[in-house]
Design brief:
about 425 residues; single chain; D-Maltodextrin-Binding Protein, domain 2; five-stranded mixed sheet; mainly alpha
């Protein structure tokens, strides 16, 4: 029963709080790109796009945006179940494993990602599945476990290359068993992982896979923000995770340090990448590992009164998270992106060129490609100043508008604000000075 609840309870909560309409920025992009089977922004997320295309067409219920939100709900509830499976593998305690699953599932970052179209939902599920199967191989030495773990690792990398940061932890488990395991299956497993990781990217243009202009400034450029997010995500459950790490240290259990090593890499990377619009998504592997460590602590501290205190602390953490996340249940009724796009369409003629910032451009593309609601409008995702060389040609044939706050100016052209609920400007050619 606890095994089923570790998946069903998070899924039910996610399903009740998932977005039903198209969103802004990356969320809006992932609402439309998989359904239309197009290229996503770098690094491309090829396996996510493929799975999203299959899911959004095979699950023909509700809006396409809601289908993609539900894909994230399924993926993140699977990740929570895998966290519980990791705890069962570590200490074979059913209730501790359920507590760990719920501690992870109801964290604010995990809950947010689980209820919208987001690559990191599927990547986190693949991450958690990979760790679970590697732990199974560590115990059993089974080639089936090894090859499934390798396939999950390859899939995680094909969803998002941030999964590469779990490799140090996996290598720790491999090295710890290297003296008693044959090498040949390990080479086969490496081939499986590499094939599944590389082949999906082979069909993408190089400039999509290797993004230009991304600046990594070095680790821990924003530690205060990270600590704040960590405390908000884990709250009192962090004490249980620290207890689990301490127990593992005393028992010389290499598995828990290996898990921590697998989860912390993407966080260190993210802390050197502060320009990312939502850096907290990169913390999810660490949060999953900390939840597993908390379950390990609960399961290993079996003395009567200590055990009661641990379970009480876990219950407090879960209730605290649920109460703190009650605002997520308003998300199904959030139609702001849809309303703004409708306002833009009502305020512009059918043949207009709409130069939109990234915030609303994916929403407009969703309205064009999925809802077929934009008429003959041309949607251009760009900053106003970056399309200077095209403005003259456009204006000679059709009206041009800028959606969102304009960045940059163009000599010879001016902007007139249009009265609407979103930032909308009509581009006008200025008279020549004599």
């Amino acid at each position: 029963m606890t095994r089923f609840a570790a998946w069903l309870v998070p899924f039910a909560v996610y399903a009740m709080s998932a977005y039903r309409t198209v969103g802004y920025w990356d969320v809006g992009e992932m609402d439309v790109v998989p359904y239309m089977f197009r290229l996503a922004h770098p690094p491309g997320a090829p396996l996510y796009v493929l799975i999203g295309w299959l899911w959004s067409h095979a699950f023909p219920f509700g809006s396409v945006a809601w289908r993609m939100s539900m894909l994230s709900a399924v993926a993140m509830s699977l990740a929570a179940w895998c966290v519980s499976a990791v705890v069962r593998e570590l200490c074979d305690d059913a209730w501790a494993s359920l507590a760990a699953a719920l501690i992870f599932a109801f964290g604010s970052v995990a809950w947010a990602v689980a209820t919208r179209a987001d690559v990191h939902a599927l990547e986190t599920a693949a991450f958690a599945l990979t760790l679970w199967r590697w732990l199974c191989w560590y115990r059993s030495g089974s080639r089936v476990d090894l090859y499934v773990a390798a396939a999950a690792l390859g899939a995680a990398l094909a969803i998002h290359p941030v999964a590469m940061w779990m490799l140090p932890g996996i290598l720790t488990l491999v090295v710890a068993r290297l003296h008693e395991r044959p090498l040949a299956p390990l080479f086969v497993a490496a081939g499986i992982a590499l094939t599944l990781a590389i082949v999906p990217y082979a069909f993408l243009p190089r400039d999509v896979v290797f993004a230009a202009g991304i600046e990594v400034r070095g680790a821990f450029s924003s530690p205060a923000a990270f600590v704040s997010t960590l405390l908000r995500e884990t709250n009192v459950a962090l004490l249980l995770a620290l207890a689990g790490v301490a127990v593992a240290w005393r028992r010389h259990d290499v598995r828990v340090p290996a898990l921590l090593l697998s989860g912390i890499g993407s966080t260190i990377f993210a802390l050197g990448f502060p320009d990312e619009s939502d850096i907290t998504r990169y913390y999810l592997p660490l949060f999953a590992v900390l939840a597993a460590a908390s379950g390990y602590g609960i399961g290993r501290l079996r003395r009567r009164y200590v055990s009661f205190a641990c379970y009480s602390l876990a219950a407090v953490a879960i209730v605290w998270m649920l109460v703190g996340g009650r605002g997520f249940f308003d998300q199904p009724y959030d139609t702001r992106a849809l309303d703004e796009s409708n306002a833009v369409l009502r305020s512009t003629p059918d043949d207009a060129v709409l130069v939109s910032t990234w915030e609303l451009a994916p929403t407009l593309e969703y309205r064009r490609d999925v809802d077929r609601a934009t008429g003959h409008r041309l949607i251009v995702s760009s900053w106003y100043g970056d399309v200077a060389d095209r403005l003259g040609g456009w204006l000679a044939r059709r009206p041009v508008y800028v959606v969102g706050t304009p960045e940059g100016s163009v000599t010879g052209f001016g902007l007139e604000r249009v009265a609407t609920q979103t930032d909308l400007y009509r581009v006008e050619r200025l008279p020549l000075k004599r």
